[in-house]
Amino acid sequence: MAGAGHESVTIPVDFHTGKSILRRFPAFRMGPERGGTPDRRGKPESGEKSVKLTGAEIIVQTLRELNVRHMFGYPGGVVLTLYDEIMKCPDIQHFLVRHEQGALHAADGYARVTGEVGVALVTSGPGATNAVTGLATAHMDSIPVVCLSGQVPSNLIGNDAFQEADTVGLTRSCTKHNYLVKDVNQLARVLREAFYIARTGRPGPVLVDIPKDVLALKADWENLGGRVDIPSYKPTIAGHTGQIRKAVKLLQKAQRPMIYSGGGAVLGNAAPELTQLTRALNAPITNTLMGLGAYPAQDRQFLGMLGMHGTYEANMAVTHCDVLLAVGARFDDRVTGKIEEFAPEAQIIHIDVDPTSISKNVKVHVPIVGDVKHVLARMNELVMEAPFRKHQADLAPWWVRIEEWRQKDCLHYDQDDETILPQYVIHTLYKLSRGELIVATDVGQHQMWAAQFYGFDRPRRWLTSGGLGTMGYGLPAALGALVAKPDQKVVLISGDASIQMKIQELGTAMQYRLPVKIIILNNGYLGMVRQWQELFYGRRYAASDMSATPDFQKLAEAYGAKGLLAEKPSQVEGVLQEMLDHDGTVIAEFRIRREYNVYPMVPAGAAMKNMILI
Amino acid sequence: MRHVLSVQVENEPGVLSRVVGLFSARGFNIESLAVAPVGDGTKSSITMVTIGEEEIIEQIVKQLNKLIRPGRVVDLTEGPHVERELMLVKVAAQQEVRAEVLRIADIFRSRVIDATPVSFIVEVTGSSDKLDACLALLTPLGVVEMVRTGKVAISRGDKRT
Ligand SMILES: Cc1cc2nc3c(=O)[nH]c(=O)nc-3n(C[C@H](O)[C@H](O)[C@H](O)COP(=O)(O)OP(=O)(O)OC[C@H]3O[C@@H](n4cnc5c(N)ncnc54)[C@H](O)[C@@H]3O)c2cc1C
Ligand SMILES: Cc1ncc(C[n+]2csc(CCOP(=O)(O)OP(=O)(O)O)c2C)c(N)n1
């Protein structure tokens, strides 16, 4: 728990003048300089003989063994022993969030940008229940997170003890796996397993619940370099060769091939292999919301996102293709619409590391269970062989049709001089930043506009809660990303309602000088809810009017951050530029047109081809 | 279709709730469930009967396999196997029907394991159909209460389940 932010709490106002002093900091770097030889405090290195340590020491040493450098958390009675130990360890920096949900989202954001396991620490009872939404969010999007939770002492479990909750019971269905460790001798093994399970196969959150007494009891510990052996858990990595050959044959004969790739391509770090295969096949490709960035958005073969708010060309191409290659995607209902009319003409090939994703919603013709990176690499080899190229079907007519669909220009918008349109804000942000930002979002219309108008050319730069759709995800996730990538710019695109779900994490941003740039597209409504009410509930805006929002500029200033406001289209570019140039935390509010919808749209349960265009 | 699944799990706290929780969370049916430790006590065997379309059964088996701790999952319905269930029936048998109860017990090769002047407890094992048939005959004679174990099953031949 070392770090500048820790040793003295940064008070964002000067006591004498009462003014913000934050601009005095030339560069908003977080934490201390790393490097040098950290204080080992006599703890053993790999290969040394085992030593007796307390549970708390075992946790810290095992985290070090697993190369954990950052964690997000919130203390409470039963975890103080552990906090005491973390504070002594200079290798692990702990970030105090403002709410445990924020700790989980921050760990999740950290994991999304790095591909490493994000780590959170919470106390028993309310700490653990607050963490549930964060775990569920990570679970739905398959994000590797390990959450350590304190538990009441073993002898009190089940006793309705103070701050007791059945954490393992509560989190069973929103974690990939969870543990209650009652025996200190099992602690190190469980931690190693937790990290291994979180990051391998289909990634996901793992929770380890640790009773207070276990933190103080002693056991032997030795550095095993993270080694684990779990006989009942062996994810399939290499795909079945026969199935891969069958898939390649199908793709070769396809006259109207289409690639549909999802979060799995990002999680499996398969962007290079995916790009190579797509180019070699000369096939059109679409990404799910979770897959954005796995294929360069600027490329001609990219048709944009598919699904409910996807592009016309992507949805039409899926509807009319004859071979669909699904890569690490799970046929979510926001993507398929009416199942019977999803890719009705296609033979479907599906690569997924999790067998339960295959043929869950849509019957698949060629299932390939395996890791995307491995399977795609193998497919690339086969595709590059001469016989493949010789017999490949001519795709020119298919591309002609696709270009016709593209001509519809379904994302077109007309910005006038009066009212700011959200698309214009994001499009301008994209141009000003040349697509180089890490972008986090909350949930709602702004999320969809961000997905449509900020083109990602690389993976792991897009943080959004797709599966659970958790409002409040964005700010803490952005902070997690900044901790992981302190030298990159991280922008949060949020709505006036979502930001208020986790606004308190501004405190975390200020304390650790995490210069997040927050864009609020303010429409004074729960915009996405209002859109559904407009379209499907006869414009009855029950409980979706949020016109009493705070003055976001003052709110920013109250935390010691910078506040900016744009009310006219002519101000948009200037405000965005000022926001990007400022080296501290900024809230930039954009008053956008109040009643305005995200299009295109496929109404829930309708067929993809029945899109509402604008 | 009814399927009999056999799941071998490590005997750790919470394993059963993991398995059962999966069924409730995903809306799968459990018709019956039988659990007991086997071998040296480090493992338990769960036999469950579930009903669903083929795709659902396929999902159930995949989902069970995905649980980290449970070990082997076998759909016994896919091959030759034997199923057995045990039932205990308490019949309030007065004078005139006592002989009839004993006769029925005999027909079903079941045993009387408790007898008082006014009651019998009959133990029946066999397929579910056999148990149902036996119960149907006993019911008019005055069944007071009845418990059944749920199915246990094992594959035929020399293969391990
Ligand atoms: C308001 C709102 C609107 C939305 N609208 C849309 C929309 O229009 N379009 C859209 O696409 N989504 C939309 N979503 C998101 C949607 O709900 C789903 O989250 C999303 O479609 C799922 O993406 P995915 O299929 O890529 O699966 P993910 O959830 O990313 O799952 C990844 C899949 O890849 C597999 N996998 C993981 N790692 C590997 C590996 N190494 N190798 C192989 N396989 C792997 C996993 O097993 C899993 O099956 C919306 C969400 C919200 C909140
Ligand atoms: C925690 C949570 N509660 C409720 C919802 C349902 N919901 C989805 S979008 C939305 C409105 C979001 O409003 P805002 O953040 O202002 O974004 P906008 O749609 O206006 O861009 C709501 C309430 C949700 N996704 N998450």
Can you name the CATH architecture of the largest domain in chain B? 2-Layer Sandwich
By CATH, the topology of the largest domain in chain A is: Rossmann fold
- State the separation between the terminal residues of chain B, measured CA to CA: 21 Å
* CATH superfamily caption of the largest domain in chain B: ACT domain
Share in helix of chain B: 25-40%
The total beta strand count of chain B reads 9
Give average pLDDT of chain A, whole number.
92
Q: How many angstroms does the end-to-end distance of chain A come to?
A: 52 Å
**Can you tell me the overall shape of chain B?**
elongated
Q: Beta-sheet strand percentage of chain B?
A: 35-45%
**Number of strand elements of chain A:** 20
Shape of chain A: globular
Secondary-structure element order of chain B, N to C: EHEEHEEHEEHEE
**Low-confidence residue ranges of chain B:** none
User: What's the helix count of chain A?
Assistant: 23
Structural class of chain A: alpha/beta
Output mean pLDDT of chain B: 92
Structural class of chain B: alpha+beta
Description:
- The complex is a heterodimer of chains A (614) and B (161).
- Chain A contains 23 helices and 20 strands.
- Chain A is α/β, with parallel strands linked by helices and 614 residues long.
- Chain A has three domains: 13-221, Rossmann fold; 241-406, Rossmann fold (3-Layer(aba) Sandwich); 422-591, 3-Layer(aba) Sandwich (Rossmann fold).
- In chain A, helix 5 links the parallel strand 4 (118-122) and strand 5 (145-151).
- In chain A, helix 2 (55-65) packs parallel to helix 7.
- Chain A is globular.
- Chain A starts with a helix and ends in a 23-residue tail after the last strand.
- Mean pLDDT of chain A is 92; it is low at 1-43.
- In chain B, strands 5, 6, 7, 8 and 9 form a five-stranded antiparallel beta sheet that branches.
- Chain B is built from four helices and nine strands.
- Chain B has two domains: 2-79, ACT domain (Alpha-Beta Plaits, 2-Layer Sandwich); 82-153, ACT-like. Chain A, domain 2 (Alpha-Beta Plaits, 2-Layer Sandwich), CATH 3.30.70.
- Chain B has helices at 15-25, 54-66, 95-107, 128-138; strands at 2-10, 32-38, 43-51, 73-75, 81-91, 111-116, 119-126, 143-148, 152-155.
- The relative contact order of chain B is 0.20.
- The two termini of chain B are 21 Å apart.
- With 161 residues, chain B is α+β, with helices and mostly antiparallel strands.
- Chains A and B meet through loops of A and helix 1 and helix 2 of B.
